[in-house]
Design brief:
single chain; about 475 residues; Serine Threonine Protein Phosphatase 5, Tetratricopeptide repeat; Apoptosis, Tumor Necrosis Factor Receptor Associated Protein 2, Chain A; four-stranded antiparallel beta sheet; three-stranded mixed beta sheet; 19 helices; flat
């Protein structure tokens, strides 16, 4: 009959002390085992040690620490018996709390209190399961008690699960939490995800929870990915109507809309139908007037009198067909592919009927000249194959007009790469930019393994691009 591994009463403290000695000795042996003996083998029984530690927590043998977890705003108290040695090994906060006492009362919000037992278990086994809804609470506990490894682990989980599906959405709340914790890395990751997937965020329940500071930060960015500037105006109007911010915030947000990027007929509709502008039209009258001036004259003439190098005249990443083309490449590791598409010369109504044709070339394994195979009898086929494996994906976008040189206009080329599908949605994970003087996107998908069907860059064995051409006007002659 198999013997039970349940620890015997009274031996827990001795086991902990012995375990500490064993770990220290093992670490010392590992450091000194630089090893010239090629027959040396590492015996790893760490899983057995972890199992014994978990049994200590489960059965409560020789516990010398009592944690009383009181839920904030409630009379509920949860009692957890633990061992000071394991708590203080990873947390200097617990080391201070248990310096002169064995019973500690901790006050935690409800979301943290319900996970505190899972948090304590981490001290015994170094692992825990995590769900989207638990991330903030676990990160808050790890931060509060200075459990740095767990804090980094939860942060990394959040950064890699921004595109995961959740019923209520989570990226906006993660951003607000990152701001409250001064976690600039997580904050920037969330902000970038929101900017690159704004069309999806604006139609979700999260949109109403966007804070005033976050809204101001978003509408000022040039890398927003959305269908059009009209879409942004409509979503901003909805947010203002729901949240009723003060007049200064409304003014800042409305003045960040890029009205010159909206065609004249849509500007007229906004003025006529928007209840928001009926109340706050005085905030943006000058901008609307300037936008109509922009559309009614040639860009060269307009640039003589106004500064067109400011953000108001810089297009964002618009997904409309006027600005670029979607490109889905099936089985992208197989052959070179090409695409032709047209965009309008510029956002001005004066240029909207003028079209530019662009040619795009995608190659899955392009090789620099120095690495290209030499097809001769002196070079083996295996060597040629190895060189092909060293190739990298290449994307080149050029104008069909030779020597494209239009006075006062340059073009920024942007490629969005979607990497994950959630219920039919493609989320943008990578954005590449080059300017007119450059045709090729450097480091394009440099780390993508397109040979694997499981590659994170592929959606159902296809590569999802969206190429965007952004015309940028420049002032040539300043009128006095």
């Amino acid at each position: 009959m198999e013997r039970s591994h349940r620890p015997r009463p009274g031996w827990g403290r001795q086991y902990l002390a012995l375990l500490t000695i064993v770990i220290i000795a093992a670490q010392a042996a590992h450091r000194s085992d630089g090893g010239s003996d090629t027959s040396a083998t590492l015996l790893n029984h760490s899983s057995m040690l972890i199992q014994r530690l978990q049994e200590l927590l489960q059965y409560g043998n020789s516990t010398d620490a009592t944690l009383r977890i009181r839920t904030t705003g409630s009379d509920e108290v949860k009692v957890i018996q633990a061992h000071q040695l394991l708590l203080t090994l990873q947390s200097d906060i617990f080391e201070g709390l248990f310096a002169n006492q064995s019973v500690v009362t901790l006050h935690e919000p409800a979301d943290c209190a319900v996970l505190f037992e899972k948090f304590v278990r981490y001290f015994y086994c170094g692992e825990l399961s995590i769900q989207l809804s638990q991330t903030i609470a676990l990160h808050r506990l790890a931060s509060k008690y200075h459990v740095s490894a767990l804090q980094r682990g939860v942060t990394e989980y959040m950064k890699t699960h921004l595109a995961s599906e959740s019923s209520q959405g989570h990226v906006v709340s993660w951003y607000h939490y990152a701001v409250s914790m001064s976690d600039e890395v997580l904050q920037e990751s969330c902000l970038k995800f929101l900017a690159w997937n704004l069309s999806t965020v604006m139609i979700s329940s999260e949109w109403a929870t966007v804070s005033e500071d976050l809204m101001v930060s978003l509408v000022q960015r040039s890398d927003l990915v959305l269908q059009s500037e009209v879409e942004l105006f409509s979503a901003v109007e909805e947010w203002i109507n729901r949240n009723s911010p003060n007049a200064s915030i409304i003014e800042r947000v409305l003045r960040s809309i890029r009205y010159p990027m909206i065609p004249p007929h849509q500007l007229f509709q906004i003025q006529k139908k928007s209840g928001l502008l009926a109340t706050y039209s005085n905030f943006i009258q000058d901008l609307l007037f300037q936008a109509f001036q922009f559309h009614s004259s040639s860009p060269l003439h307009f640039a003589k009198y106004f500064d067109v190098n400011c953000s108001m005249f810089i297009p964002r990443n618009y997904l409309s067909s006027y600005w670029g083309s979607q490109w889905i490449i099936n089985n992208p590791a197989r052959d070179d592919r090409s695409l032709s598409f047209q965009t309008q010369l510029g956002p001005s109504n004066h240029d909207s009927s003028k079209k530019i044709t662009w040619n795009a070339l995608f190659s899955p394994r392009w090789l620099p000249v120095s690495l290209r195979p030499v097809y001769s009898e002196a070079v083996s086929s295996s060597s040629q194959s190895n060189r092909l494996e060293e190739g990298k994906p290449r994307l080149v976008v050029t104008s069909a007009m030779s020597g494209l040189d239009i006075a006062g206009v340059t073009f920024q080329k942007t490629v969005l790469v979607g990497v994950k599908r959630q219920h039919g949605k493609v989320f943008v994970k990578h954005v590449y930019n080059v300017h007119q003087s450059t045709d090729e996107f450097s480091d394009f998908l440099a780390h993508a393994d397109l040979q694997k069907r499981t590659s994170e860059y592929l959606i159902e064995n296809s590569l999802h691009f969206h190429i965007i051409i952004k015309p940028i006007y420049h002032s040539l002659i300043k009128a006095k």
